[in-house]
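Form P-L/3: holo structure prediction, ligand adenosine monophosphate.
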Amino acid sequence: MFGKGLRKNKVDVFLFMTYNTFGIVLLSETKDSVGMRTKMDNDSFDKYGLSDEILQAIHSLGYDIPTEVQSRVIPYALEKKDLVVRSQTGSGKTASYGIPICELVDWLENKPQVLILTPTRELAVQVQEEITNIGRLKRIKATALYGKHPFSLQKTDLKQKTHVVVGTPGRVFDHIEKGTLSLKKISYLVIDEADEMLNMGFIDQVEAIIRELPKERVTMLFSATLPKAVKNLSLKFMKTPIDIEMKSEGISVDKIEHIQYRVTEDQKFSLLTNVSMIENPDSCIIFCGTRERVDTLHHELSALGYPCNKIHGNMEQEDRTKTMNAFKRGSFRYLIATDVAARGIDIENITLIINYDIPLKKEGYVHRTGRTGRAGLGGKAVTFVTAREEHYMDEIIEYLGIEIPRMELPGQEEISNKRSDFSAKLLEKPVIKKPKSDALNKQIMTLRFNGGKKKKLRATNFVGVISNIEGVTAEDIGIITVTDSLTFIEILNGKGPKVLKALAGITICGKGLKVSEFHKK
Ligand code: AMP
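OUTPUT (holo model):
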């Protein structure tokens, strides 16, 4: 039964099955199979028997070869096994459950079938985007539920056809209590970053949510580490889950250079400017211990002309999202952040991490520095340590089992040599990166109609009219969102302009409607 997806490939992988003390099934590979596994890792997604809509979308996203976590998780997830996966972000973890979930959901069902719980709003949005991209051509509708965002808008969204709900525990629970999120058809539950849920004090809320879910379901739990409370969760609510541990993960010493400086509080700011001058990074995150420190540093670096912005938990969600997106696109080079930005956030090409304030938890060091050295690229992690904080650094070093050499403060000569390059780069115009989903979206145009529920219009009315246009079929229609006074319809396969032209001045159900192209802000 195990490894069905693997056998398709006609490769015999030997898996030993044992049960650990927590009742979790442990699978370990023989030495020989590790070699084969590598061979399969270099394989393509075609071997999983995925539908064309999903395959085409993942290829458009540029995912040609499954990552390690994907090649281990996808076959079991497609077989609807409960899984406990020890894996970190940056490994392609989201797609490892996103791909099978998009494959398995029943498009025709209107009520949510999948619930994904994440510890932070940023991660919820990111996961929702990834699911939307993977499921784009299958027209999978994913909705994100998180705090500091109008409840009423989410409520309206949930009234539409929704396949996947991604949310933070607090807001998801609010919707459950108010009866605005139907759980009847939930057949897949994903708990992402379970250990972080625990750190943030959400674990009881997660439990409370699970108790409300149908018992007949598949549960997948992802966590970088497995503290006792997380193991207990898997024991209580999962059916002999398969334990998948990504051995090659953890702290990266091959790809990331770790160094530390011993400083006084007063020296920190000048060291920061010196380090940034020497390193002159394209993209850098500076981590601070508190929101106030972030505000102050942002103010000071802005005054020096650094292309920088900030993110912390005290900011409005909309501003946080805007800032993260702008940073991802490369609109500015220095992001000053609290740990809010440390977990789960997927930003490519960060070459430098500066721990302006040392993380107080050793795990925090892993999460922060994990923002660099992603996707096989190199990176550098620099930590400032005051005398009072030395024991934190000792703990980190012991926990990771790596050397983090203490460097001499940079000398004047080195700094002067780099000054002109640094100043020149400050004046460079940023090169804005295109999002990964661009190729996918090129084929898609969203149309906006100036009528919705109040005019008694329904999705089927639009489908009828659009699929009657010559050369257009129902397959070319993507996600439809009908709000009170507007309707948004995605037209796929590059047929948007044709539909837009054909529908100019259209009457639907006796109502004259204006249609225009809609650009998401
Ligand atoms: P995650 O671990 O889910 O945060 O993913 C890290 C990054 O890897 C994201 O930018 C994904 O879009 C990207 N990614 C996921 N799967 C693949 C793949 N098979 N090939 C290339 N990139 C991928």
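COMMENT: Confidence is low (pLDDT under 50) at residues 1-42.
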